[in-house]
Design brief:
With about 80 residues, the chain is an all-alpha fold. Helices cover about 85% and strands about 0% of the residues. It is built from five helices and no strands. The protein is globular and about 30 Å long.
Amino acid sequence: LRIARAHRMAAAWDDAIAESRAAVRLAREAGSDDLVAEAMNVEVGVHQVRGDFDAGHALAEQALALARAPRIRGILLQG
């Protein structure tokens, strides 16, 4: 997740998405829906900065459906 965020901040969009998806996979394996949602949010941010708002919105809705913790839900609702 941290690597995905670092790539996003460095504008390495493809790397950010790849790392975000890897983090999603690992979070699913660990059984943490909140962590899955938080990792998905990195990809949401990439779609937003690329101007692909439909893809970002759809992914954000999926992440929001998974998120349970108020902190994670708040992060997702900021975008």
